[in-house]
Amino acid sequence: MLATNGIPTAEELAPRIPPAERLKKGPVAVIECFQKIPCNPCYTACRVGAIEKFEDINDLPKIDFEKCTGCGLCISKCPGLAIFVVDETYSESEATVSMPFEFLPLPEEGQEVDLLDRSGAVVGRGKVVKVRKGKYEDRTPIVTVTVPKHLSMVVRNIRVGGGKK
Amino acid sequence: MKHTEIAVIGGGPAGLMAALAAAEMGASVTLIDRNSRLGGQLVKQTHKFFGSERQYASVRGIDIAKILSDKIEENPKIEVMLDSTVVAYYPDDGVLGIEVEEKKWVKMKAERIVVATGASEKFLLFENNDLPGIYGAGAVQTLMNEHGVLPGKNVLMVGAGNIGLIVSYQLMQAGVNVKAIIDAAPTIGGYWVHASKVARLGIPILTSHTVKAAYPNKMTGALERAVIWKLDEKWQPVPGTEKVFNVDVMCIAVGLSPLAEILWQAGCRMKYVPELGGHVPVRNENMETTVPGIYVAGDVAGVEEASSAMMEGRLAGLSAAQSLGYDDGSCEDKKAEVKRELENLRSGPVGEKIRKGLSKLAS
């Protein structure tokens, strides 16, 4: 439970997950923001108007999944590092998850890494397909990693190298 | 004796904004800070900030410090005194006593004063809480992010407020192992997004837990072991629930209290408001205390976020300048805008404690 250990339950998570139909169409942002805090950079980052204007800066972000192109420009702008882009159309058996990753060493494209869930537990291995670390990302690199399709809503972190705790 | 129109004491987010706002209206400002560079606590905040564009949301604290101090340095209306600590205020003639570079004594008469001195870390009572290796979390952040020194190898973080959560994340970024974050409260006090960030690194957060005791290494005398235990719903420890952590560092992040010595010396009316961190100055809606001409902003006025500290600083700076007659007609509008901004920042559920504190202070 978020309030006691920082890990959302399935119930807490449910309203933030894009509908299955939308997930079949390609990459889309999953905004794991559950608490009304005064913050709105996700709205100002979105270039396609998928994140609604905040009437009150304390509102939770409202996203129009149909408008969202999964471009990922919001990922590095979220101060809470709470936005992920999930692409379930990557291949027959695999999805990709793009996530903010502010740790060294940064993985290289093609490198295999441990896949971690929201509690930091290792749930599998995946391959890094892209690392974005330009001026726009401002020292919050975005790592895109392949995950078994059934783990697209489970994997939210990686461990480079892997095997050690 | 030095003379200035507006003395701003403290070059953190509140003080920087106060100085800029007062200068923007045309007043001459002297900004005094005890450190050798401006920025206050911003200089170690490596994370991106919340809020809106107006409070530099999505920009890292370290970069906000740079943006604001560059603006200060470019501004001919602002004189900066670094390595300068205001240690006295003489109420009879309103003179400030400033220790400069630990060797010179400078007296300054300011027509208006903005006190933006911030806050200091609270501590926690438990057996052996004075062992080497037990730090304030903010101190560890300074050591690590400002001076590039690691505090140790394995850490127990005490306090799951924003500081405890953020410093835990930054310790992990620096390669230090945070074994757990504990908090006496039944729920996490910090933002949940910060909690989720550390949770997915594998750090367990244990609410309703507190420190029972710390134990030293027999050879070195430094911290080697920490014992925690569970609290029941009445916040009483439950014997038999002890857990042992082999750690060489313990960080205490149990809140801040306002650094209000200058305000006490000046005779400002103070009120004890736990929601705001302790004794805080009574003030009007323009941030002026009960001593005319002395304004406050930021954590010294009530412990809150850097975003609201910046807004309070701007409000205090505008008000102080206006009271000296610096007003091109835009001052009231600018003040109203800042007040709206502050109200917005505090209007949500996480602002409840601050709202409660402020209404107690006003009553």
Automatic annotation (TrEMBL), chain A:
Residue span, 4Fe-4S ferredoxin-type domain: 59-88
Domain of life per record: Bacteria
InterPro entries per UniProt: 4Fe4S_Fe-S-bd, 4Fe4S_Fe_S_CS
Keywords, in A-Z order: Iron, Iron-sulfur, Metal-binding
A Pfam family: Fer4
MF-aspect GO terms: iron-sulfur cluster binding; metal ion binding
PANTHER family cross-referenced by the UniProt entry: FERREDOXIN SUBUNIT OF PYRUVATE:FLAVODOXIN OXIDOREDUCTASE-RELATED (PTHR43122), IRON-SULFUR-BINDING PROTEIN (PTHR43122:SF1)
Protein name per Swiss-Prot or TrEMBL: Electron transport complex subunit RsxB
